Amino acid sequence: MSKECLHLAHVANVIPGTRGCEECLKTGSTWLHLRLCRSCGHVGCCDQSPGRHATAHFHATQHPIIEGYDPPEGWGWCYVDEIFFELPNQTPQKGPIPRFY
Ligand SMILES: [Zn+2]
Ligand SMILES: [Zn+2]
Ligand SMILES: [Zn+2]
Predict the structure, then answer these.
(1) How far away, in angstroms, is 77 Cα from ligand 2 center?
(2) Residue 44 belongs to domain with CATH number
(3) How far is the CA of 5 from the centre of ligand 3 (A)?
(4) Are 67 and 57 in contact (CB under 8 A)?
(5) pLDDT confidence of 9, banded at 50, 70, 90?
(6) Please, which residues bridge with residue 97 across strands?
């Protein structure tokens, strides 16, 4: 039943690169929720957002682990294993984060 994620060992302490979705901020687009890449600190938007930039970032970079970046989340998701888990630590936000909902 419970799959194991072998990428957890590679979860890094990252500094968020931007206050919101990097791509959406460039294009003036909006997002619903944010996802933080725990490999490099890229901030992207979730799959319910028009841009789906967090998933696009995974496809572009193969960085497997994201963190839910809307407070007070702190869960992790592995794109490769497709499982949720509790992250051992949460990344402090670089606020204030723009919101559109
Ligand atoms: Zn994994
Ligand atoms: Zn986006
Ligand atoms: Zn990344």
Answers:
(1) 17
(2) 3.30.40.10
(3) 17
(4) no
(5) confident
(6) none
